[in-house]
Amino acid sequence: MAEILVVDDSKVMREMLVACLRRVPGAAFTQAASGLEAIERLSLKHFDLVLLDLNMPDIGGIEVVEFVRAQDKLRALPVVIVTTRGDDGSRARALQAGATRFVTKPFTPEAILAEVTGLLGASGAPR
Questions:
Q1: Residue 126 lies inside a defined structural domain of this protein
Q2: C-alpha span between 120 and 85 (Å, rounded)
């Protein structure tokens, strides 16, 4: 079973991402509404993948990625940035910080599903 953490300050966007990924076999979802909440959840539970917004009111997505990459037990965790910021600078900063993939909003359900299954494998199991 794949444990997926969905982090976005918009509840509607979190729910939309979860709805897009319901077809991932055996996936379980945990949601976080802020960067701080994401760091707390990552510290307490194992996740196989994180979907993360860049723009949040407390700790931004880049800082969350930097936190993940600084932790030995989380270093290999795939982090997919899902953001409205599609400019080259934002993409470069996110990838330089250690993001695995970068997806801009709006996205199609098929595009986000392809990113996640590509990272987890078609069976939904972590690679």
A1: no
A2: 25
